[in-house]
Specification:
Layout (H helix, E strand, L loop, with lengths): L6 H37 L6 H33 L9 H25 L4
């Protein structure tokens, strides 16, 4: 007789993996908007008024920081609900640390936005 895996543990594993995929999707969204904001600030110089390129870039960079924050918040929200279960998950402290580093990068990019684009 072969032993079949516990269906409850398989369901928990799928939930954990879905949570990690959601975290990764938020991080990808944040990185994409950060790069788009920096790209707009750098490569659309002269084709649009300076105030508009800086505004669009700033909105995208702020959105990236918000995405990084929401990634950690959403991950922690499910993690807290499953903390009492015997399921292996990425530690919340690791997720928070990586999200904080990315938020700091976004804020540094926002501060550096005015150094990237020439002032008139």
């Amino acid at each position: 007789m072969s032993s079949l895996p516990d269906t409850n543990m398989l369901a928990l594993d799928r939930t954990v993996l879905a949570n990690e995929r959601t975290y990764a999707a938020w991080i990808r969204t944040g990185l994409t908007s950060l790069l788009a904001g920096l790209g707009i600030a750098r490569f659309l110089q002269g084709s649009m008024p300076l105030w508009s390129t800086q505004t669009i870039a700033a909105v995208l960079i702020i959105f990236s920081a918000v995405s990084f924050f929401l990634a950690a918040w959403r991950y922690e929200h499910l993690h807290v609900g499953m903390a009492h279960l015997d399921v292996k998950m990425i530690p919340v402290s690791m997720v928070k640390l990586s999200s904080l580093v990315l938020i700091a990068c976004s804020l540094i990019a926002l501060a550096g936005l005015w150094y990237i684009t020439p002032s008139l």
